[in-house]
Structures are given as C-alpha cells and as structure tokens.
C-alpha cells in the first residue's frame, strides 16, 4: 500500500508571502516552531485542524483557500 | 555492607548534577511564565524518538545477554556495561529529536543548551584525563570497570554536540535559502 504523500502547500506559502511574513514570523504568531511551518509548506507534515485554523486566522484566509486540495472530480 | 564512600560519592554527584540542572533551567526560560512548550509536530517526533531509543536499549540488553549466555564475553555485564547501553539509548533519542527539531522547546535557548552540554563534556573530559594519568584499567576480571563511565559519557556528549552543530548549520542554510526565495 502506497503511503500518502502530502503535497506541497504552495497556497499557504504564497499567502504568507503576500503578508510579507517570514516562516519564523508566522510560527511565532501561531505558536509553533519555524520548522513546523517549513514542513507544512513542503508537504512533509500534515497539521491538525486546530493548527490549520490558527494559521488561517493569522493569514486571514479560509481553510478551503489554504488547505483544500484541488482535485479533478470524475464526471 | 557495600562501599559507603562510593555510595556517598555517587549521591553527592547526583545532587550536584540536580542542583546544576535546576539552576540552568531557571536561567534558560525566556518566558518564565510559560512551562516548556513543544508544538504538536515536536511531540510526535519525540514520541517516535522515545520508541526508537526504547527498542535500541532492548536490543543492546538482548545482545549483551546473548553474548554472556553463549559464553563469548561477560565484559558488558557490569555497571559500566549497562551505563553504555543507557548512553547509547539516550544518544539515539537526543540525536533523533535534534534532527527533527524536537529537542529544544519553543521557549528555550539553543545557546544555553550548547553551553550546558559543553560544560558537561568538559567535566567528563577532565575525568578521562585523570583516568589516563592514573593508568586506571578500563577492563578488569573480563568486565568493564567504573573507569569507563567518564569516557562513555564523554563520547555520548560529543556525538550529541556534533549533531547539534550540524543541525544548527543546516537550519541556518535553510533559513538563508528561504530568505533568498
């Protein structure tokens, strides 16, 4: 069975860049380590819903905008 | 009756170590109102590190017992031999945590950790020098002696500090790359 490979979170990275925030800045605002933010953006760590909500609040985005996968649904 | 002086010496060493740890932890807290805080990813990484270290310790004990039962060697069936297993297990745990950025909590200072480990390394190194100068045997009656404790601890701390240093440089490079992007 293939392990789930979390995708890079480019939406979160661009939202963070749009607010001119560094990874450390976002980490401090959310209350996690910089490495956690880095791993979320690289797709190496899947955050809990609580952390997702905290990030959304800081970046002023919704969960859909930052964390929902764009999937092509079958017709 | 056991060696009272030895027991008192161990007790004094333990109390001194405890005193030093308490002082360092009080100085270490950047925000004294907060307890040590690890984020969710760090806690998961620590859990994985604990599990790995636990199985490494079990493996070590198994190997030592097999070697003794098979009459190959009883060298590790002593306090120093068990201490070696404990140090290997601790090293595995700490190195995994360091590599996963899960050793230092959110409100602790990396530099203080490095200074602490450096000071411990120095104290143990002094012990190693003393052992060499006094020609104390590391093996007696086919078993590791208590003279091995300082060298074992010294090597463990050296490995941990090396891991710290490598990780710090790697993190700095990543931060630099991230800033450049």
- CATH level-1 class of the domain at 10-61 in chain A: Mainly Alpha
Helix-strand makeup class of chain A: mainly alpha
Distance between the termini of chain B: 69 Å
The second-level CATH architecture of the domain at 10-61 in chain A is Orthogonal Bundle
Name the overall outline of chain B: globular
What's the β-strand tally of chain A? 0
State the separation between the terminal residues of chain A, measured CA to CA. 26 Å
Strand content bin of chain B: under 5%
**Morphology call of chain A:** globular
Secondary structure: helix percent of chain A:
55-70%
Number of helices of chain A: 5
Biggest sheet layout of chain A? none
Q: What characterizes the major β-sheet of chain B?
A: 2 strands, antiparallel
**Integer average pLDDT of chain B:** 87
Summarize the structure.
Chain A is mainly α and 75 residues long. Chain A has five helices and no strands.
Description:
The complex is a heterodimer of chains A (75) and B (181). By secondary structure, chain A is an all-alpha fold. Chain A has a domain at 10-61: Orthogonal Bundle (434 Repressor (Amino-terminal Domain)), CATH 1.10.260. Helices cover 56% and strands 0% of the residues of chain A. Chain A is globular, with a radius of gyration of 13 Å. The N and C termini of chain A lie far apart (26 Å). Chain B has two domains: 1-31; 38-180, no CATH class. In chain B, helix 2 (40-69) packs antiparallel against helix 3, helix 3 (79-99) runs parallel beside helix 5 (149-180) and helix 4 (110-133) packs antiparallel against helix 5. Chain B starts with a helix and ends with a helix. The mean pLDDT of chain B is 87. The interface between A and B is medium-sized, with 16 and 12 residues.
